[in-house]
Amino acid sequence: MINVVFLLLIFFLMTSQIARPDPFEIAPPAAAQDSPADPVPALLLSAEGEMAFAETRGAAAIKAFIAAQQQGGPAPQLRADKQTPAATVARLLKTLAEAGLASVDLVVEGS
């Protein structure tokens, strides 16, 4: 049994590739702050169910949000208040899916 283990060990040592170390150590430069990110389109949803996108509010906000996403760009975001009922968020996500948005990122706060 030990012979088999040694044979396997030799086999793996001979067939594996060893990564070459870097020729010298480098330290990447530090930046004072990250470069500004491109703005991500976000549909806002209040605890009372009021919606807003850019300058539009209410049902028009959904239409403007969908129209903006059909032009392409980064993945859309939904920013809902933490007091918003889950049923309201689910209804809105269903409406967006029916309008053709394949995915919408729900923004949450990390703990």
UniProtKB/TrEMBL annotation:
Family per record? Belongs to the ExbD/TolR family.
Q: Which organism is it from?
A: Litorivita pollutaquae
Look up the record and report any one GO term of the cellular component aspect: plasma membrane
Tell me what topology the record assigns in the membrane: Single-pass membrane protein; Single-pass type II membrane protein
The protein here is known as Biopolymer transporter ExbD
- Where is it located? Cell membrane
Recorded GO MF terms: transmembrane transporter activity
Q: Which taxonomic lineage does the organism of this UniProt entry have?
A: Bacteria, Pseudomonadati, Pseudomonadota, Alphaproteobacteria, Rhodobacterales
Coiled-coil residues are none
Q: Which domain of life is it from?
A: Bacteria
User: Transmembrane helix: present as a keyword of the record?
Assistant: yes
Give GO BP annotations, semicolon-separated: protein transport
Write the record's keywords in alphabetical order, separated by commas.
Cell membrane, Membrane, Protein transport, Transmembrane, Transmembrane helix, Transport
